[in-house]
Design a protein that fits this description.
With about 425 residues, the protein is of the alpha/beta class. The protein is built from 16 helices and 18 strands. Helix 8 crosses helix 10. The mean pLDDT is about 90.
Length: about 425
């Protein structure tokens, strides 16, 4: 590191950090196949699933909890009613916007014909079902050739979209079943204008397509399945906003606010589409996601191996490390953010040689004129794991006695190796 930078940062002291465990709602489904079997016993579902029908199941590119178990159970129940199930990769432009690329993503998620009992029909061709408010409604050509489609997706807050619906049924209809063309249509005016476009496209697809019903997965703060909800085709638009509200109420979060410095060990596409979940950090690719979350400086330390160098989201941090910068695949990042018209996510902040230096810089910026040792600092593994977190003494003293907080370790100095780096969580 440059000697002048060292001279500026070395005097900055890092506060002692304690470890606490935050408590969240742990309710989850114990018997997923049994729950799905019960849903298929409902009369309205049986009316949708007739003998000899060829029925597709949408599967996206995100790692939904227990995804293989869910898809396998859906496939088995369809077979039990005499129908023939198929898997439809529904990922917009992911997988390089190719049929082979999307099939490979499913394989990496464990979704194959052998594991699910359903043939995978990967295809990028689309049919335009008609315009809605001047917006074309692209729909997977193979999906349309089947007798019906079950729209499976996780209902959750989206990283950037904000509205009555975010990630869920209507998004996988518009973007997933729309393939690459559908994704471009949804994104072409920017993410801040995507929700109304998704709603228009989904409404037309529900009217003109062959969707039978939706299967919505809701997860709790521990990344476990809280509920799996079956929704009739004609109730999807009406019921999805309420399911989103239920999902948001289960989101993990900080049990405190006003953070001067947040240290995030890992960012990555396997953690969030934005590398870090904006619903946790309050920042998104297109601005502020949650006005109630106040974080001054964010430090990111490393990108996950699963991301294969696509460190999209590093631009949401204020300071990062040389370790992060050296691991980035800038071409992959740029393609992703340009397609989404959200280039901020690929911007590289100041990258310093060590974790210690990066944290010291953030403390300097956040505590201008104040004692850095009194800073409100927090450290998390990533935005998926919000149970066990590190907090500075200022936060520790405030929350340690709360009912939903368990003290794991009293505050003490963080340990850096001889290169100034932390042992990542």
């Amino acid at each position: 590191m440059n000697k002048a930078i060292e001279n500026i940062l070395n005097p900055i002291q890092i506060p002692d950090m304690g470890i606490v465990r935050q408590g969240f709602d742990k309710q989850s489904l114990g018997d997923i196949p049994g729950h799905i079997k019960t849903q298929f016993s409902k009369n309205w579902v049986k009316e949708c699933v007739k003998e000899n029908l060829r029925i597709g199941i949408t599967v996206g590119s995100r790692g939904i909890s227990n995804l293989l178990e869910i898809v396998k159970a859906l496939s088995q129940e369809l077979k039990s009613l005499g129908a023939q199930p198929f898997i439809l990769p529904s990922m917009g432009s992911h997988g390089g916007a190719t049929a082979a690329g999307q099939k490979k993503i499913l394989e990496e998620l464990g979704i194959t014909e052998e594991s699910t009992g359903a043939q995978v029909l990967s295809n990028m061709e689309v049919v335009n079902l008609g315009d809605s408010n001047g917006i074309p409604t692209y729909y997977d050509k193979i999906a349309l050739s089947l007798d019906g489609v079950i729209v499976l997706n996780r209902i959750k807050a989206h990283t950037d979209l904000e509205g009555d619906i975010e990630s869920g049924f209507q998004k996988i209809i518009a973007v997933g079943l729309g393939n690459h063309k559908g994704a471009l249509v949804v994104h072409e005016q920017g993410l801040n204008r995507s929700v109304p476009r998704i709603q228009s496209i989904a409404k037309k697809a529900l009217e003109k397509g062959n969707i039978l019903f939706g299967v919505g997965v809701i997860e709790n703060a521990y990344d476990n399945v809280n509920d799996i909800v079956f929704v009739p085709r004609d109730k999807i638009i009406e019921q999805e906003p309420e399911l989103l509200r239920k999902s948001k109420a289960l989101l993990p979060s900080f049990h405190f606010n006003d953070i001067d410095v947040l240290v995030v060990d890992w960012i990555g596409k396997n953690i969030s589409g934005d590398g870090m979940d904006p619903n946790i950090i309050g920042r998104s690719m297109i601005g502020q996601k949650n006005k109630n979350i106040r974080i001054n400086q964010i430090v990111t330390l490393a990108v996950t191996e699963e991301s294969k160098g696509s460190g999209v989201g590093v631009g949401l941090s204020d300071v990062t490390t040389r370790r992060m910068a050296d691991a980035l695949d800038f071409e992959a990042m740029y393609i992703n953010t340009i397609t989404a018209i959200a280039i901020k996510g690929a911007s590289l902040p100041i990258a310093l040689d060590s974790d210690r230096a990066a944290i010291q810089l953030a403390l300097k910026v956040a505590s201008v004129g104040e004692d850095p040792l009194k800073s409100r600092m927090a450290r998390i593994k990533d935005t998926l794991h919000m149970g066990e977190i590190w907090v500075s003494k200022a936060i520790f003293d405030e929350i340690a006695s709360k009912d939903n907080i368990e003290v794991v370790q009293e505050p003490k100095q963080m340990v850096f190796d001889d290169k100034g780096n932390l042992e990542l969580m």
